[in-house]
């Protein structure tokens, strides 16, 4: 019930957001303002899925709802610089302290306005991806500590769960019983904290990223790369001699086949976490691109004709809300897939011989979801 209410609320907020955007665009057309350049949907999409130095929520009636973020730069030639990203202007066209934004990157500028190649710039700014990751971490820690305190006080142990426990406890139980136990056997308790942390951290970032104006953190290849690298480290430290023996000398395989199979098996050790990285990145980026594409259709039709813009707006909003609701489902699915496959790969790393490959009766080979 709570889940349905949350979905309805998010859909309503997003619909109102789109209506404001479309009204603003068409109102500007009706006022007879000539556009300096046509609406560039590709630019809007790229600006949304890429990292940035500010949170831009919407533009309406000549005003921008923007939260600027701190810019922290170091240059061996110019030293440290600290200032707000608002100094660059809305489009990043303004120069401040000898720096300018160019395609999302901070570059040094000469007095004549050209790029200064002689100045090396190291950007330590708190971009929106970084800020949002910190916010997701704070939410995760606060949520888990709050629930842990409830259990420590006896709520949910001696009595029935209450409040947010009702929503989180089934998820924890699901990860334990359907992810950790089937794939890790009797060692599941050792890896359960890591699996739960990965699941909830990805889920929170996925959900927060669906709020208009926020960053698509899980759609950033650097973010998913770090998660995959951490999983690779856990997998490697969980491996044993039997695992490496099967990689470098597969049993019951002809010698000539081994020459081909050994490099493939060794590459597979690193390809598996790469697959985790690309799967999460691609799915989250694709969803955001589709949503922004449907929103962009309002402005594209509006630029062609005001009536066409107004006429297509309801259809665009309906399609956008539909995809938006699917993306809420995808947010949970992708968190589950990343966690489940991580458990599968860890289980493969420490499993014994063929007789001990499936420690629990009735265990079936895991299904790889795409």
Give your account of this protein's structure:
The chain has 370 residues and is mainly alpha-helical. It folds into 2 domains: 70-125; 128-356, no CATH class. It is built from 9 helices and 7 strands; from the N terminus they run ααβββββββααααααα. The chain has helices at 2-30, 41-49, 128-152, 165-184, 188-208, 221-238, 241-248, 255-304, 306-350, and strands at residues 54-60, 63-68, 70-75, 79-84, 99-102, 105-108, 122-123. It is globular and about 70 Å long. Residues 13-36 and 353-370 have low confidence and may be disordered. Helix 1 (2-30) runs antiparallel to helix 9 (306-350) and helix 8 runs antiparallel to helix 9. A 3-stranded antiparallel beta sheet has the order 4-3-7, with no helix packed on it. Strands 1-2 form a two-stranded antiparallel ribbon. A two-stranded antiparallel sheet has the order 5-6.
